[in-house]
Amino acid sequence: MGQNTFLETVKGKLIVSCQALKDEPLHSSFIMSRMALAAKQAGAAAIRANSVVDIQAIQDEVHLPMIGLNKVDYADSPVYITPTIKEMRAVAATGAEVVACAVTGQPRPHGEKLSDIVAQMRQEFPDTLLMADTATLADVKQADQLGFDIIGTTMHGYTPETEGQNLATNDFAYLKEVLKTAQHPVIAEGKVDTPEKLKRCLALGCHAVVVGGAITRPLQIAQKFIHAIEA
Ligand SMILES: CC(=O)N[C@H](C=O)[C@@H](O)[C@H](O)[C@H](O)COP(=O)(O)O
Q1: Is Cytoplasm given among the entry's keywords (predicted)?
Q2: Where are the domains of the chain?
């Protein structure tokens, strides 16, 4: 894979997701760049970020490897994480070491086929790694077959089939199945919200762990405390 050393750099480490969508209080590329700086100062090995403007603002502020994505809603598809070749290209063009996209078995916008998207990306951006944001073991198998470089558990709990499921349930029972199934390095992502859970994911054999909201979404963090009062 050319000069791409992302996998070596993040092995056994924390990747911090710095994201705030339009309807979130911290929606701002500047704020995301400062979130990334805090993550870097704490010792994070890489950043995961959404949208070209956020990725670029973060790249200017911190020089850490990047998992880039672009969330876009299309009327004809439930897939929203880097759903079409257009967003894939735009994210790869930022120089992000990894481009992440949903691999959920759901139809993509304009009838685009994931196999075509992967083939096109390999041709245009041969040094860019591809991360599959999967929800089920079937998705993991598909991602492996298509040659994705990294298997993420990002969408587990966020599709109709997996709604309400949590990666940590029953001592990460689902994650253990993913680790048995996957042929490519697994990055745990989604609701890893304590240092203990992160350690467990690494001990089980994950290559690295992405933590988002528990570090970078203060609304979500504050709500946890409020719920404790109300419970
Ligand atoms: C499902 C979906 O759209 N996940 C997104 C993917 O990039 C982000 O909103 C999450 O924050 C990220 O996956 C990290 O997860 P958590 O914030 O739970 O640590």
Answers
A1: no
A2: 6-230
Helix (H, G, I), strand (E, B) or coil at 130: strand
pLDDT tens track for 114-144: 999 999 999 999 999 999 999 999 999 999 9
Superfamily of domain 6-230: Aldolase class I (3.20.20.70)
Q: Is residue 219 within 8 Å of 24, Cβ to Cβ?
A: yes
ipTM over 0.85: yes
DSSP letter (8 states) at residue 188 = E
For the chain, the C-alpha Rg in angstroms (whole number) is 17
Residue with the smallest CA separation from ligand 1 atom 6 is 154
The whole-angstrom separation of Cα 208 and Cα 227 is: 30
Atom of ligand 1 nearest to the CA of 48: 7
Give the Å distance between the CA of 131 and the centre of ligand 1: 14
